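Tokens in:
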């Protein structure tokens, strides 16, 4: 089981290695891959120093599985080269997500759609993963008509440069800016680039990706994505209109019994999801569940998850685990 991690020196790549180690993923040889400037660097994995190699070297090494977290352009160029060598690629960028020939996978929902022929598999957007994991059991039971989602997203979703910007601002140091504006003591309603319709790319991912994963283009979705000065963990305020009436107790039971979800919902004890609780964890936390009193068949809830773990690294590793367990690589 040769496993390549492409983008091993990046923020998600380092979490990927932590998750692989923590979950004891079966690896006979670990290939750490990064850009030219990082070739030759050593990274410790389970007590052993491994030398970082370049992309072409990694392709020639014919890995069984390659987990990519190196940006869309790298994925578009190199994922097909890995796949041509028989490697199964799990890609964490947006490059392949909406490609109709590629599967967009959250293992608890649709891993059973995977086959040996799927050589490039797309890992969804971090905000999408925590959202659809919550929606899937509810959609199956009640049918979702419309969804309004507002996100409060961690700066780690932008990367190391954004974390450095916040640290500099908190220390009163002038430095490189990841955003157009200060992020310390601020909220920026601008995640990714703006599209022609006035929505950001991040907002449109939240519209398109859930429809594909849940295999239902009829779900009406609108989104607003906001960046806040939190280092780890995305939060989402979600309003869900169902096609059918729901029972609040039954809805809570459905979520409580769904794999990967932790219900944190007791207003008597001020118990609700927050990024500080989700940090470093693989579960998706759901709370503040209450009926929307302004409209029939509608519920409000608050969803929080660590965007670098279940939102990226953990989901990718779970896909790899499924492939291995079902002899698909």
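Residues out:
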């Amino acid at each position: 089981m040769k496993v390549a991690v492409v983008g091993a020196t990046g923020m998600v790549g380092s979490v990927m290695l932590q998750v692989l180690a923590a979950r004891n993923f079966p690896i006979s040889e670990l290939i750490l891959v990064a850009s030219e400037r990082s070739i030759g660097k050593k990274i410790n994995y389970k007590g052993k120093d491994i030398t970082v190699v370049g992309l072409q070297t990694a392709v020639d090494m014919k890995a069984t599985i390659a987990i990519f977290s190196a940006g869309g352009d790298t994925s578009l160029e190199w994922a097909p080269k890995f796949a041509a060598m028989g490697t199964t690629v799990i890609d964490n960028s947006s490059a392949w997500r909406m490609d109709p020939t590629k599967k967009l996978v959250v293992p608890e929902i649709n891993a059973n759609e995977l086959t040996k022929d799927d050589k490039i598999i797309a890992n969804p957007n971090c905000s999408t993963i925590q959202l659809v994991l919550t929606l899937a059991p509810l959609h199956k039971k009640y049918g979702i008509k419309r969804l309004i989602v507002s996100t409060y997203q961690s700066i780690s979703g932008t990367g190391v440069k954004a974390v450095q910007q916040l640290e500099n601002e908190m220390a009163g140091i002038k430095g490189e800016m990841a955003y157009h504006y200060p992020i310390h003591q601020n909220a920026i309603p601008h995640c990714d680039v703006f599209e022609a319709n006035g929505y950001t790319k991040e907002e449109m991912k939240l519209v398109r990706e859930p429809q594909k994963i849940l295999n239902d283009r009829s779900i009406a979705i609108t989104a607003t994505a906001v960046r806040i000065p939190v280092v780890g963990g995305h939060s989402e305020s979600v309003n869900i209109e169902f096609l059918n009436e729901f029972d609040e107790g039954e809805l809570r039971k459905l979520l409580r019994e769904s794999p990967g979800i932790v219900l944190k919902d007791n207003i008597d004890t001020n118990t609700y999801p927050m990024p500080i609780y989700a940090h470093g964890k693989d579960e998706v936390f759901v709370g503040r569940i209450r009926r929307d009193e302004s409209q029939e068949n509608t519920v409000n809830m608050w969803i929080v998850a660590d965007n670098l773990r279940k939102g990226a690294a953990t989901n990718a590793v779970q896909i790899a685990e499924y492939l291995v367990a079902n002899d698909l690589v």
